[in-house]
Protein 1
Amino acid sequence: MFRPTLTLNYDRVLNTLAAWLLALFWLLPLAYAGWTAFHPAEYETRFVPFAPLTLENFAQAWSEAPFARYFLNTMILVTGILAAQFTLCTLAAFSFARFTFPGRNILFALVLIQLLVMPDILIVENYQTMRRLDLIDTIAAIGLPYVASAFGIFLLRQTFMTIPKELDEAARIEGCSYLGILWRVYIPLAKPTFLAYGLVSVSHHWNNFVWPLIITNSVETRPLTVGLSIFAVTDAGIQWSVINAATLMTSGPLLIAFLLFQRQFVQSFMRAGIK
Amino acid sequence: MTPAMILLITFTHYPAIQTIINSFFSTARGRRKSVFIGWDNYQTLLQDDVFWKVLINNFWYAVWTIPLSIVLSLAMALWVNDKLKGRGFLRMAYFTPTVLPLIAVANIWLFFYTPGFGLIDQIRGLFGLAEQNWMGSPDTALYAMIAVAIWKEAGFFMIFYLAALQTISPTLREAASIEGASKFYYFHRVLFPLLMPTTLFVSINAVINSFRLVDHIFVMTEGGPNNASSLLLFYIYKVAFDYWDTAYAATLTVVMIALLIFLAIGQFFFFDRRVHYK
């Protein structure tokens, strides 16, 4: 019935070993990028324990491409999208969760279509639309297709529906308007969902690439990802250590934020995942 | 909610329908206007060797990335959930690729694959193996892309499994071990069926990703050599923004959306009998 402790330990050791091997393998690319970025170019493939450390690669990358501007663009983009998504998705989710109106289910189904047919896929036609709106090469154009996010509406609706109706009836009796109820009752109670959705959204748009690549063509609008790809491709003569420094730089803020708030990060992704 | 609906219609429903309409018209070039040409674009598509090549590539891309990333993510979740030594570190290691921009990590992987000089070849060199041009050879380029995609998405899927595992009561495991069930039996008969809704959700996401994750191709191979590592979305990008044949790109998009919808519905039916909702 009970297996001897020896086999159990054996099994456990084997599992631990496999888990660690996989983890090290998973971190290898990042560790490697870190190694080259902080060491002079001669040490790119020579892994000597006490190789001299340097920040030269970062300085060089920073001076060779307008990364400061790219950072600014990405910041504007990410905060803009987040603010717009919060506003629109909250209002939409509230009306789906609390009001009954004709065609509500059909409308909600139409929203959910976006989970499958995402803006990422409709690049050709969205480009035409942006041209008609005269928005090509603007930061607004990068964000607009993503603002009304089906994922956000769905997530917030699910959260709002768990809030007991008695609460908003009580608030109504106290003379609260619908918007007041939303602001004073629903939003405070859905805070964890907002945090989760915010993190998912920020990391998604920080990393997004194809659509920004298509819609932007100047330094003033390009986000970091597009800037980095241009930096890494144009100058074939650039050293790996400099490219890796630039790579770390672009992912840096997100990575540091992730390492600092790891627990919250993972938990909010988990919360976003539970349906 | 009206503003949300307007934006959603402008950037999802309208373009989706417009794409279908455009696929029946020719591309306007210079003074020549776009005219209705019926199924001509679809005829071209059927005879387009590159399209078939890309479709087959995408098929293999899906066939490898979907099951492998699901299996890996499940293993990761079980390990992290299973109080192994250093689970905080393990979780961090597995999840990190998810927060990194794919375009940035593509640069690092590019270096791994570089013939002769790159890390993989250096390690091969230690064992006396010959240099290998991973991205330059048509036989391996696609698989090099597949490895990056799995590395990128497995940690993300792990989170969903982890979330599901934590809702499963530990009494089930105790009951199973009292009954003398082996670890494998417990997993096979108890854990895995309970995780089915998550598996459905993850696999739909994996299917979507197998069409969507193409960022690294821009940096690493640009679809080459000779379209050996090109995928459908990357080809759409090429046709629309390199050759400016928007009507044909629309036709390709229609095919892609049709495939996506077909696969998503197919999965629901495939899993339907296997999923036990609580």
Protein 2
Amino acid sequence: MNIIVIGLSHKTATVEIREKVAFSPNLIEKPLRDLIALDDIVEGVIVSTCNRVEIYATTHDIAGGIARIKRFLAAHHRIPIENLESHLYAYHSEAAIRHVFRVASSLDSLVVGEPQILGQIKTSYGYAAEYKTSGIILNRFLHKAFSVAKRVRTETKIASSAVSVAFAAVELAKKILGDLSEKTVMLIGAGEMCELAAKHFINSGAKGVMVTNRTFERAERLADDFAGEAVRFEELLDHLHRADIVLSSTGAPHTIIGPKDVEEVIRKRRFKPMFFIDIAVPRDIDQKVEDVDNAYLFTVDDLQEIVQANLAQRSLEAEKAEEIIEQEIGQFFKWLSSLGVTPTIVALRNRFDEIRRAELEKTVSGWKDLPADAEKRMDALTMAIMNKLLHSPTSALKQAGQGGRVDLYVDALRQLFDLQTSRQDDDELALEE
Amino acid sequence: MTHFFFSLTLGLYGVATMVYLACLIRTSEKLTRWASRLLVSGCIAHILSTVHLASTEKHLPLTNMQESLSFFSLMVVVAFLIFERRYKVTTLGSFVTPVVLLMLSVASTLHGGARQLPPILQSNWFWIHALLAFISYAAFTIAFGVAVIYLIQRHFLKTKHFGALFQKLPPLETLDEISYRCFAIGFPLLTVAIISGAIWSEKAMGSYWVWDPKQTWSLITWFIYAALLHGRLTIGWRGKRAAILSIVGFIVLLITFFGMKHSVTW
């Protein structure tokens, strides 16, 4: 049995194509059922996020299976296959396993290391499990992918650093102010970046928000959004001492906060440190504020630098993650290959024969004055019993090999008779689940 | 027995110091836990060594330089372990443990050994004085370590160098809080230590204050920390200047401790 992956992602298709091919989670049951109704597609899972659409399936016939799923995707979304084909990638066997492990570990994401993708795959798998379109192989495959992703997350620092400017601001503030839970944010002026940063600060526990704007009504409106307090622009300096974090992005042609102001404000707040972020161009906050003790001023460029450094760090960590994935592929692939009919029959025969020989040896070795040909006869006898016993399971297995239930039989046999093909790996897999 | 525990302490502190230093370079939960475990084991050995010495000498082991240094470093370790539990500041250990190791190594080279307790030390006021002085010294040592880290971290922030060390060191506010705690504990203890020292001086020599170098430098130390705490309580003084003053205070404290032989003892 082979695992195949067919799909497209932000790397191969523009958003216009991706949104045409996306599956709605509410209507996923029908496509899932249609998918496994395809000829020689045994199991199937559909993953659909805004950055990728992928189908994971198992089949006996790799080339045929891939072609059928490509046609299925085109037909389901009513797109001519010629238009879709060039955006699609297809993997099978080891490459398919590697691809899914990498996707789940967020190595294939637009922002490497972002944590959402794992949850999205889990949800998609949840649907497939609910509608029973995934079976023994994909169940194990995806659980394995989840545990690999977890390993990557804990053993590398791939997701530990901030890769957006707003998030970098929060991280930096924490290095100065420590716990943000009792801290107040002051928003000066309006601007997408500022609001985004303010949201991040609130998510990180910041307690209060003050908003000021040249037009007081706008300040009031924004303050409402944050359940905060609007401050008149003329009274900014009277309220500034209450803010621990100041985010500024006005369109003012000159600076609105100078070093003298900040010195006074800081004295007023008993020298507690203040964190300023100036997003405005030209600047709102005089650069000399940097020299005021207990005031820490950063511009967007500073934050951008942190983000760049973190991204570089992530790509280093990604290399470590790839190594982890390579190890795990080997282990999983061994299990997958052991599911074939022939290796199972061989293993089953070997197991029986091993027992037979051991018992025969035991009987013969303790037996004095054994008739000359008795050993030969006993050997023939036990062999005959063994062959009779094995006959019906073997032929049942061979027959099942042509149908879809073979994996179930093979897995059951391997467990019931304790067949030794990479048993240790199997135990590990079982434990992770 | 004392010697055995002492050597064990030195060994454990040595390993703990290395692990704490490794924590500066590598981020690992495991490493952090082991650093703390090793230091706690060292601390237990240190306590056993101290208790054993006290029971053989039948008084607190604070009567010569070796004993005092050892007790001083024990108090520093205990104080650090308390702060580490409370504030999760492993990196502070990377700065404190080498100092402790150094103090204890110096102590191990000094001449110790039992001797007749001089009659001048046979006063309860002396024991109170010495005990409290060392606890306050330990608090100021931690404050010193914190001030050094504060200045390093502040430098990184002001010059916008956000390297690996910057990521490891604790937030400024946490450092500030620890240093404030240290002063709030250390200063009252130092005050009582100096007063009880004066009373002891009166009992032993008939005068509360004889202006010997030890007493004079103690007073200078006291004034520095008084200024720090006063500034903090009245106008909320903190940051760079407070950190520098804390470092100056610690240097003066070291001069008081090592440099100034008491005119009547040692």
